[in-house]
Amino acid sequence: VKRITTTGLQSMKVRGEKIAMLTCYDYTMATLLDAAGTDVLLVGDSASNVMAGHETTLPITLDQMIYHAQCVSRGAKRAMVLVDMPFGSYQSDSAIALASAVRIMKETGAHAVKLEGGEEVLESILKITKAGIPVMGHLGLTPQSIHQFGSYGLQGKGEEAAEKLIKEALMLQEAGCFGLVVEKIPAALAAKVSAALQIPTIGIGAGVNCDGQVLVMQDMLGMNNEFKPKFLRKYADLAEEITRATSAYVQDVKQAQFPSAEESY
Ligand code: KIV
Ligand code: NA
């Protein structure tokens, strides 16, 4: 199988073929999502929430992200493996940012990194891309800044915020980013950004006119009944299925219905 590359994503945008991205944090799911045709597996720092049970993405460490990325890389044959740089691994200065990105690339077999922010992380992006490491940007709702935002609400509202976002998107493209995630912004603004950029945009809560879409795998598969924002479409109800299967197993064990003679040696 031919691997999805940064240039492959670029030509998908030119052809008008939408890019399908999902988050992924482990080997088994990587094999399944990859075989089902997902173009990009994002080892998101949302692992902090959905894998580790933290309230925010802030606590996850670079070592923990590297572990998840190693697991996903072993399972992905066709998909690009893209790894989030965690909070604290790139913000302070560009030399530290480069060192963090180099660790991810050296130790995981991933193909690219993603980091949050605009003008304030431009120098880091320049340094990382100059080292030959593909970088995806991330604007709009950037969860690592949750304590500054105060809520996970819609971003890019109003003319001033919209203009700032478009300006920063162009800066990120100029700095060498191969793509851009836009999170929770008005669909009209995401359409405008997507048209203004040569590089592909990947939306989450950003309408259909992005060049691709991304969802958190557990949300898309319906593994978490509490989380149901407007932008989410659930393609399965795995919470129900897993609960049903687990209850049936527990009941069989309690009633000595498992294992049967055929399942015994
Ligand atoms: O960490 C994550 O899951 C993300 C996506 C939602 C874009 O960054
Ligand atoms: Na993320």
Automatic annotation (TrEMBL):
One of its GO terms (molecular function) is magnesium ion binding. Its cofactor is Mg(2+). InterPro entries: Pantoate_hydroxy_MeTrfase, Pyrv/PenolPyrv_kinase-like_dom, Pyrv_kinase-like_dom_sf. Binds 1 Mg(2+) ion per subunit. One of its GO terms (cellular component) is cytoplasm. Transmembrane segments: none annotated. Pathway: Cofactor biosynthesis; (R)-pantothenate biosynthesis; (R)-pantoate from 3-methyl-2-oxobutanoate: step 1/2. The keyword Magnesium applies. It is found in: Cytoplasm. Keywords: Cytoplasm, Magnesium, Metal-binding, Methyltransferase, Pantothenate biosynthesis, Transferase. Belongs to the PanB family. Catalyzes the reversible reaction in which hydroxymethyl group from 5,10-methylenetetrahydrofolate is transferred onto alpha-ketoisovalerate to form ketopantoate. Homodecamer; pentamer of dimers. This is 3-methyl-2-oxobutanoate hydroxymethyltransferase.
